[in-house]
């Protein structure tokens, strides 16, 4: 049975109790921005410094919440999600004056005139993150949104309640509600928030939910940033270092229990190299997650809830029924919501796991005779958020780039392209629209206002 405190908390966060509060906060933030740009650069910097200090203050609670929600290992000194947020804050503090400067343009029609782009805040932004990284998928875009001078209404994710509670605490302590306010609650609260005539919506999640977010935003003509997902491929050729490939893919696929939007779903590899790559994958899986033949569950995250555990295990059952080979793993513990790292081969094209984003600790080997086979399969899946190319041959890399589309590409690596804030991060087509990180995030949540000043006679 639910405890009395949990029942009370659910009542507090019910839509009936939160509707007046939602309207009050929205009215407050809208009024704050009624006359344009109320938050100066120095004030934005002060807000970011307060945010930084508060994130670090609650680092231990963040780690514990992530363990409670997902079983994520707590052996990091500073939580990964806190670390990447602090990194983004430090970059914004160092560069915000430069980012906010007007960009002067040489006029085409009258060389004596003055033309420039002025960066205005969009106003009030609705920010909705995702449960797989319940802090950083809110806190890293929040840095850009604050740096650009906006106010923010946050919806935390109910799928990770412990993290939601800590995030709410951090936001409440770091910011006055006219700047940033966080709401907890179920999907009814999310639906109510999406009715607000906000100036911009920033959403991270699945393509399915992304469609509903975009549809809701259209009612108010709110602009949107959608950071979605997809089936991210790794494309390998004969020149690749298979030990390196396997090491990267094991890190990518099984970090956070495979619940990462940029992790590799399947590997397209020459048939002549498939057996060797499989052996390398198994070697690195055993090194990272096993003590001898015993799986050490404490080294990775569990599935976030029973719904997602059942979803991934249904893919495995379906693949087995259709004749797939379990080259490694497949073990499950329903009570602990744990799935052991799994490598599948010989998977029929009509298997569910070949069509759906896995979002769990399973990798699929897809051998090819001709790389065109990989391109044909990729074309059936929509444009992924990430793509990974392993090769020492420039012509192979260029051929893949010329025959594909994705949000981001990393060659002979995995996370480096995401970590480097000089590059935009975002999807395309079914994996999303818009981009952030560094100055791109600042621009994404700014209105780039064109200004043309005629010369005074």
TrEMBL record:
Signal peptide: none annotated. Keywords: NAD, Oxidoreductase. The active site is at 227, 261. It comes from Pedobacter westerhofensis. This is Aldehyde dehydrogenase. GO terms for molecular function: aldehyde dehydrogenase (NAD+) activity. Belongs to the aldehyde dehydrogenase family. It comes from the Bacteria. GO terms for biological process: aldehyde metabolic process. One of its GO terms (cellular component) is cytoplasm. SUPFAM superfamilies: ALDH-like. Residues 38-450 form the Aldehyde dehydrogenase domain. InterPro entries: Ald_DH/histidinol_DH, Ald_DH_C, Ald_DH_CS_CYS, Ald_DH_CS_GLU, Ald_DH_N, Aldehyde_DH_dom, Aldehyde_DH_NAD(P). The keyword S-adenosyl-L-methionine does not apply.
